[in-house]
Amino acid sequence: MSEQASVKVGDKTIGANHPVFVIAEIGINHNGSMENAKKMIDGAALAGCDAVKFQKRTPERCVPKDQWGIERDTPWGRMTYLDYRYKVEFDESEYAEIDRYCKEKGMLWFASCWDEESVDFLEKFSPPCYKAASASLTDLDLLKKKKNTGRPLMLSTGMSTLDQLAGAIEAVGTKDVTIAHATSTYPCPMDQLNLRMIEKLREAYPACPIGYSGHEVGLATTWVAVALGATWVERHITLDRAMWGSDQAASVEIGGLMRLVSNIRDIEVALGDGVKRVYEQEKKAMAKLRRVK
């Protein structure tokens, strides 16, 4: 990977020869509960994650108007879809509390903004970067809005073609941009993960650190992504995979998150630097076992 392929996010650096940047994606798995959000922030801090991420929407902008009045059953009773979308959105005072709590925990936080008004909203909190969800990769005005804040931008590539990714990169450039391989199926079956795309993206975009945003069940494939060269990883987290919500089943519970991060750190050490050497600890075995020097 090119030496220039690094991006500064807060006090962390994403790129080759730096620790893998681990994002715990809370998204809307808090179900509108600040107590749940804080518990997940606590879990991410305990696991050693670098950041937590939320999702921010302006419901009137993101919900098609013909769906506003459609009623659905929710944990809070039957309500319109628009009312439900507001139920799982935090307001400014709640994000101020998230900002305060994350600073107390020494945890970076940011969000995937699904509309331009949400970018203006998040700017009040000076996030260290922005994420563009896979669904937003072709919304070039939104990508430019995020990039024009001067903050680093993470792009997810699920549900997208290479031509669409190229169009996004043409719109925002490669400076302070990172790209994540992703498949937007929740949960994602093994035969759709296509992890070798990490290597392909690294070849195609040497100026951009390449990451992995996973939605599969289990942890091993995320460890493989790191071994294949992902410089940052993102996994959805939850307090309980049986909780209500469309993302819960594809999420990692806190115990699994702890194993995920711990083993990522082991993999980083085990990969080494690729320079063949005889280690001091080998010399006793060499003296005992090698017959011909």
List the helices and strands and how they pair.
Elements: E1 6-9, E2 12-15, E3 21-27, H1 34-47, E4 51-56, H2 59-62, E5 71-74, E6 77-80, H3 81-87, H4 92-105, E7 108-113, H5 116-123, E8 130-132, H6 140-147, E9 153-156, H7 162-172, E10 177-182, H8 197-204, E11 210-214, H9 220-227, E12 232-238, E13 252-253, H10 254-271, H11 280-289
Parallel strand pairs: 3-4, 3-12, 4-7, 8-9, 9-10, 10-11, 11-12, 12-13
Antiparallel strand pairs: 1-2, 5-6
Describe what is shown at a glance:
The protein has 293 residues and is of the alpha/beta class.
What does this molecule look like?
The chain is α/β, with parallel strands linked by helices and 293 residues long. It has one domain (6-289): Aldolase class I (TIM Barrel). The chain is 38% helix and 21% strand. The protein contains eleven helices and 13 strands. The protein has helices at residues 34-47, 59-62, 81-87, 92-105, 116-123, 140-147, 162-172, 197-204, 220-227, 254-271, 280-289; strands at residues 6-9, 12-15, 21-27, 51-56, 71-74, 77-80, 108-113, 130-132, 153-156, 177-182, 210-214, 232-238, 252-253. The strands form three sheets. Strands 3, 4, 7, 8, 9, 10, 11, 12 and 13 form a nine-stranded parallel sheet that branches. It is globular. The model has no long low-confidence stretch (mean pLDDT 95).
